Amino acid sequence: MSAPKPILIDTDPGLDDLLALVLALRSPAVDVRAITVVAGNVSVDACTANALRILEAVDINPPPVFRGCAKPLSPSVTRAEHVHGDDGAGGVSEAWPVQHLQIESAHAVDAMLDFARRHPGELTLIALGPLTNVAMALEQDPAALANIREIVVMGGSGDGRGNVTPKAEFNFYSDPYAARAVIRSGLPVTAVGLNVTEKTLLSRARFHERLASMEEGTLRRFLFDATGPYFDYAMQKRGRDACPLHDPLAVGAAMDPSLIRTQRMVCDVVDKKGPDRGMMTAEPAGDASDAPTMQVAMEVAAERFLGLFLEVVCG
Ligand code: BDR
Ligand code: CA
Question: Is the pLDDT assigned to residue 225 strictly greater than 80?
Answer without folding.
Answer: yes
